[in-house]
User: Fold Macro domain-containing protein from Catenulispora subtropica.
Amino acid sequence: MLSAATDTVDDMQRGIEHAMGDATRPQGSGPRLIAHVCNDAGGWGRGFVLALSKRWPEPEAAFRAWYRDRADSGFALGAVQFVPVGEDIVVANMVGQHGYGPHPEDDPPVRYAAIASALAAVGEKARELSASVHMPRIGCGLAGGRWERIEPLIVEHLVRRDVPVTVYDLA
Assistant:
């Protein structure tokens, strides 16, 4: 996390590229990881996952099997499932949301510690593959998270490990 007085918003944003567009069509070449947040209740049907499913069937099928076999599969908050979808593209299903559906504003489904754990694993995988990481504003849609809490996690677990990151906003 940010610890020194020298860490400013400008320092945090250094290393995160922002782009207008679709995170399921990651810019650039070479190995690319698409990271997104899933819930721990096995639901897949709203938000960014719809765009993933429209483009590739594998992430949804893998997530559903992972959840179905959760007693033995390692499925839990903070876990990540890496699903190859193309020659140089892997989708990272990160479990960072507890449940789904309507929630009180003071207790949204987002779980920041789980997202931090998942991003650490994504950082390791990205370094192993020499990959860049691409994502929407994870945890800030249906999960109800706040970007000002998510962005420092991305900086800590990806940017400071020299992993290139692009965050996409739809046009």
